[in-house]
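Hi there, hope your week has been kind to you so far. Thanks so much in advance, here it is.
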Amino acid sequence: MMEQRLPTTAANPARQHRSEHTRSRKFFLTNHTRLRALLAPVEAPQNPRDVILESATHAFYTNGVYRTTTEDILVQANVSRRIYSKFFPTKEALILAYLDTRHERELSLFATVFRSALTPELTLNVVLSEVVAELNDPGFRGCAFINAAIECRDSPAVLDAVRQHREWYVGAATEVLRRAGHAHPADAADDLMLARDGAMTSGYGGDVVSMAAALRRVVDRVLSEIPGPKLASGF
């Protein structure tokens, strides 16, 4: 007599959700250092343009775009003014290249997380966890784009670069929330951007722990608005 098999039951959604949460948290913990490495140059630059840009990137972010002079860059990069002018005829051109470098690093970070095939909720968690990690970095000086917009408010080109970066960031967050099933993804993305701006600005001159906690509360509220099993922020 053949053994009678019990019919298989449907998978438990809550159990599946916990399993995916565990898997995704493991991904985040094991890849956190790798993701953070995207925010810094992988290797020392070789050509003069990259040497100049790397020196400017450090000086602009650490000391401010306005306070950093062309002479400062020439000394740090150890290049002549002739070589400098060949690649960057104006200081504004160098500032735009600096902002483009920052944008490309954040773009790479988003792309790496998206390729990991996490759920939209966990994608959002990982990306915003990077904001918290940046807040705790000893070299943190606020948001490079907000700083540049304040210091270069008379430069239409710089302001346009900042605007384009912020529109891209909100657009990426909107798409993640749309995929997650949020009823109002664009509004929720605006809320997250405002919370991020607040954390990046107040975290520089205030209590980093409090700012990170406030950002977490906003993320948790946005996640709670997504239908289905609830997942609190993991940072």
Remarks:
- Residues 1-11, 16-34 have pLDDT under 50 and may be disordered.
- Residues 79 and 186 are 46 Å apart (CA to CA).
- The chain has two domains: 44-89, 95-235.
- The longest helix spans residues 13-37.
